[in-house]
Each structure stands twice: as C-alpha cells, then as structure tokens.
Design goal:
Four copies of one chain form a homotetramer. By secondary structure, chain A is an all-alpha fold. In chain A, about 70% of the residues lie in helices and about 0% in strands. Chain A is built from eight helices and no strands.
Chain lengths: ~220, ~220, ~220, ~220
C-alpha cells in the first residue's frame, strides 16, 4: 500500500510539473502567439501522460486523479479503504509538482493565480472534458487495458483544444494550478465550480458506462 | 443493440465536438496564422480519433461514419438491419456534438456556415480522402485490427493537410459542419457534392480491397 | 503477385500525394514562416507512413521504396524475380501520387521543379538519411516487426529536421518530386546525386546490419 | 559484445545527429520564433528516440546514456565488465553524431559552444529531468518492456518543455553538445554541474524504484 501511495504522489507531481512547467516555458518563448504556447503545452501534457501511465500504471493503476479513484471505488474496483490515501497522495503530489516547476524556472513555490476562468461556458467545458475522460478510461481499461495510456494521452491532447477551459478534468490538478500565477493557473475563486462540474461529468460517464459495458474493476 | 446505437451516438458527438471546438479555439488563438490554427485542429482531431476508436470500438465497432457502416454491410460485415440505427445515431450524434462545441464556446447551438468549399479540386479531394480512409480501414481491420485506431488517427492527421478540402471524408461530419459558422464549417450548398464524392471514394476503395484482400467482416 | 504490385503502386501514390499535397497546403497557409510549413509537412508525412505501412504491409510488405526492395533481395528476402515489378509499381505510383496532389490543388499534372538542392552537404544528408532509414527497417523488422510502421514513421518525422535535405531517402520519391514545382520539389539536375547517395547509404546500412543481426528475410 | 558496442555507438550517433541537426534546421527556419524552433527540435528528438530504441533495443538494450548503463549495473542488470565499453561507445558515438550533424549543415566538425546554461534553476532542472527519465525507464522496462521506447520518447518530448534546461538528462549528450556552437549547444564550463545533477537524479530514481518495484535486470 505504501508503494501505491508513493506511486500516486510521484505520478501526480510529475504531471503537475509538466502542466505548469511547460506552460511557463511555452509562454516565455512564444512571442505572444498564444496558439503556439498552447500547442507546446498540449504536446508536453499529452506525452507525459503516456509516459506516466505506462510507468506508474503497473504499481498503483496510475489514477493521478481523485474522480477516477472515487468512481473506481463506486463501481467496485479499488476498495474504499484505499481511497483516502490515494486522494491525499494525488493532491499533495500535485502541489509538490507545482513547487517543483516553479523552482525549475526560478519562481517562488506558490503564488495565487489571477487567471480568470469563470462563466457557464467554462464550467460546461469541464463537465464535457471530464465526461469524455472517464468514458475513455472505462471504455479502454475494460476492453484493451494495454492501450489505455495511449488513449488517455491522446484524449487530453484533443481536450486541451476542443474545450473552452483547456480541460483540467481533475480536481487535484485544479487545486494545485490555483497556486501558480502562470500560463496554466486558475483563480482560487473559480476552483469550486470547476471541481463541481468535474464530479458531475465523471459520475455521468461512470453511470453510463456501467450500462454500456457491464464491468467489475479498473486497472488501467 | 441499444448499447451499440448509444456508442455510435456518443462517439460521433465527441468527434464533432473536437473538430468544431478545436477549430474555434485554434482560430481564436492563432493570431491569423492559418497554418498554426489548422495544425492545432489537426492534432486535436487525429488524437481524439485514436481515443474514440479505442473506447467505442469494442462496443459498436466505432464506425462513426455512414460510409463505413454501409460499406461494411456491403461486404457482409454488419447486418443490413442494423444499418439504419447506426446512420441515425451517427448523424444525430454529429449534430449533438456541434451544439456541444458551440455551447462550450458560448455560441448559439446552430448557425448555417458561410464557409465556401466548392469546385472540382475540393470535390476530387473528398474522393481521394475517403478512398484513402476506407483503404486504411479495410487494410488494417482485416490484418491488424488492434492497430486500426492508430492507423485511422494517423491517416486523418495526414489527410487534413494533403487534401485541398482538409478531408471531411464522412457524410455525418459534413452535414453537421454545415450547421457551424466557424473555422470548420461548410456552406450548406456545398454539402451535396462532398457527400457524393465521399460515397464514390468509399465504394472504389471497398471494391478494390475486396480483391486485394479476400475478407469476411470488419470489426475495427 | 498482381495484388502485391497494386499494393506497392497504391501505397507509393498515397505517400507522394501526402508529401507533395501537404507541402502545397502548408506553404499556402504558413504566411512565410518556413519552420511552420515544414512542421506541418513533417507531421503529415510521418503520420501517413504509419497508416500506409499498417495498411499495405500485410499485402506487399509496404516497401514503397526501391532501395528497400533491392536491399531486401540482396539479403535473400524478396525474390529477384519480383524486384522489377516492385520498382515499376513504386516509381509509377509515385508519379501518380504527384499528379493526384496537383489535381487536388488545381495545378497541372507535372511541372519540372526549380527547387535547388545541391552541394556536398545535401548529398551527405541523403547518405545519412537513407543509412538511418535502412538501419531502422532492418533493426525493427527482424526483432519487432509489428512495431516497424511506428518506427519508420517516427524516424522520417525526425529525419525531415535533422538532415539538411529534409530526408528524401527514396529514389522513387526523389524522381517524382522532380515533377512538382512546389514546396517539396527538387530540380531534375539534382536528382542523380541524391539517388546515388541514397543507394550508398542503403547498402552501407544493409551490410552493417547483416553483421549486427544475422537474418533471413524482411516482412515489415 | 562487439555488436553491442557498435549498436550503442550508432544509436548515440544518430541521437546526437538528430538533437543537433534538428536544432540547426529549426533555428534557421523559425524566423526568430523560439517556441517554434524548440517545438520542431522536440518533435524530432522524441520521434527519433522511439525509432532508435525500437531499432537498437534488441541488440544492446539501447541505453544510449551512461547513467542508464551505470544504474543498470548497480541493480544487477548489465555486468560491470561491459560498462566501460558501453560508456566509451556512447561518448564517442555522441561526438561522431555532432560531427555528422555539422557536416550535413556545412559547419566545421567541432566548435566550443557559447550557449550559457548555468544557475541553480538549470541544475535543479537536470536533476528533475534525469530522475523522471530513470523513473520511466525502470517503471516501464520491468512491467511493460515492449512499451519502453514509446514511454521514453514521450517523456523526453515533455521534458524538453517542462524543465528550464530543455532536459539533457544524459552525460554523453551533454559532453557532445558542448562541442556544438548551435541551438542545442552548452558552454563547456556549464557541463560539470549538469552531469553532477544528472548522476544525482538518476541515483535517486534508481534507489526509489528498487523499493517501488523489486527487480532483477533491465532490458529495455
């Protein structure tokens, strides 16, 4: 169990280091062409997800996302006893990752973000983004588990662009990005609605896939 | 059967949400550099196809395309009885996806496109694009079905650039994009020729691959 | 045998349609930012190679390249009797692909290129590019044939950038690109040295890998 | 054994030819948009890693990196007797690759770099980059060795962007890049700290994964 906690912590830390770090680098080098900055941010995030899910999947399932862990418990995958450890590891790992990214770019460990991400379009985007993510997770992990890392990396690559919110789709990621006043940040006051929409989207997809594919457990 | 219909509906909706949504995002952020907008649109579309075909393939085959469904019926794959349900699911899913994308970006559900896509070069492009798509579908799904999602995603990534029409290659996609006055739209009056060329290209590839690879059914 | 000839013809045609067509599209949309045009051209070419090798590999081996065919015959793979048919299919397919690309973009079927690609740096680049390509082909196809399409697509994606010549690495491609006065073209008088360097690089890699990995045949 | 030495030499040479060559090409064509140059450099490097690890993995394990070789010996993988040969092959191959890239672009074989890469942020970046690389290598190569080439290529693609140093993560690469006064270069006086940080990161990850995943040997 300790190994699985450390795995979720490390995976979440490297995920956030990538999301925030590549956002800083891309923003600095893009000369104000926002699409170019987001493209670099996207490619880095999608690629690191493939690497992290392949690396940490065999140890802890590589959830790296509280809604994945909770939904997996709901459908009888991971036991409820393990859930709190997973969530603590994911959130603390995410904050550790933000501090790591900031250190790599010579910034203070944490600064509250001023990046406004509010309004119904943004919140609906998070619902759609997380619905799609959980659909991909359930669809792949039941029928073709070895392809899940590629499917999730590909999905997030797309979701950075097809949603207006750039697809956070993960409450641990959302909380930690509120502590980064950079390209990838989100204002603390916008976090609540994002997380609410993520939970709703995840539950909707999980319920639907329980019917679409009768299942027992997930082990991405 | 209801599961397969829902699978085709959802897959088509997420595909169109990506095509249209990423087009809007890319267009807004690219500062007028069209190649950059198309590159982001391309990467999002190719990536989401990998994710969707891996996710919905095990449930419904993940056709997500009327010409794939009809051609599969022609060669004895899916039964003709199932075809109408598939087509309705694909077209209605595609329109649902367009409305979803518009909602995520704060636009009205449907607006007729004014994007002109006409002339012989465009129409010939759709013939070539769909011929190539069906060639990839038949070639892979018979010999290496587990690689089909990657092959189709890669093919469409290329086809966005090597055809003058950016490769719609799908009648359901074409119809729904006529209802989006954004980067990815197509004028309603140009839809007919696009779909005719797509059908011709699909039939040509299907006939050719019947000879190239004696086959029974497709289950991408 | 007829099936294999048609497979090589079609694969070569779609390869050239992509190389030339995506070059035209990228050049038109890139607003003079050459790196952006080459990036789009690269992504389209690398992606289509993955799709084409997965599609046509099971039928004809998907050589799509005269030096691959000749080197495969040298090491006892394909029989020498089949070589002329393969070469004719590859070269004629390549020219058909150029005409197809031109038609999709409203250009005349063939125009001699004026794109200068000469000098020792360019020629040495083609030696290195083809040496590397054949190294990848032999290394993968003997030990992990199912990964060859991904390895070749990835290699060419890189080689477009790390060589000064953008890595033609294929005599059929080189001949056909001389008939396209577009982004991807090459002046007819520069073709000879390119092909000579490609043959030298291919032979060097083939000889070396005969020693590195004792082998019998290739069936990528 | 001679085959394995040649494999490490060739793989390292092609890796450096790509890193340096694609940097030169990208720098020349990007019109001063640094993010675009780095994106092309990134895509070329990530892609060539996939191709090289698939090609040379079956022969020598495709370490291509002294810290991978030494850490593999520490955990009982490769024998210590083989280590010196591997290291000599990797370093000499890396320098051969730099000279090859320079020759392809008409530059002198070696020129000391003037590219400043110093300070704690850069050095910490190399620690993180190499820690992550070894985590991916150990995590994948023990549980899913056939996916290692894709995981490593994806990881480096991300690490070019999420670290402030663009992730050298390899002492042989670092030494050789000091001999290239181009986009990818590093001032010779900055090399020492980079390599020290790389060794520390690699050892930390190796120790941690010894505990996370009890193991015997690596054969990526």
């Amino acid at each position: 169990m300790a190994r699985r906690i450390v795995s979720e912590f490390l995976g979440s830390a490297l995920l956030l280091a990538t999301v925030v770090g590549s956002g800083i680098m891309a923003d600095r080098l893009s000369g104000g062409i926002v699409a170019l900055a987001l493209l670099a941010n996207t490619i880095a995030t999608g690629a690191v997800l493939v690497a992290l899910l392949l690396t940490f999947g065999p140890i802890s399932g590589a959830h790296l996302n509280p809604v994945v862990t909770v939904c997996d418990a709901l459908v009888g995958g991971i036991g409820w006893r393990e859930v709190p450890g997973y969530l603590v590891a994911q959130v603390s790992g995410a904050f550790a990752g933000v501090a790591t990214a900031h250190a790599m770019f010579g910034l203070p460990a944490y600064v509250a973000s001023t990046h406004i991400r509010s309004g119904p379009a943004q919140i609906f985007s998070e619902f759609v983004a997380t619905f799609g993510l959980l659909a991909v997770v359930w669809g792949c992990s039941r029928a073709r588990p070895s392809a899940t890392p590629f499917a999730v990396g590909a999905y997030i690559t797309a979701a950075y662009w097809f949603t207006a919110s750039t697809s956070f789709a993960n409450p641990a990621v959302t909380l930690a990005r509120a502590a980064s006043n950079t390209f990838a940040g989100i204002r603390p006051e916008d976090v609540g609605w994002f997380i609410a929409a993520q939970c709703a989207g995840a539950l909707a997809a999980t319920g639907l896939f329980q019917w679409l594919q009768p299942a027992k457990s997930k082990n991405s």
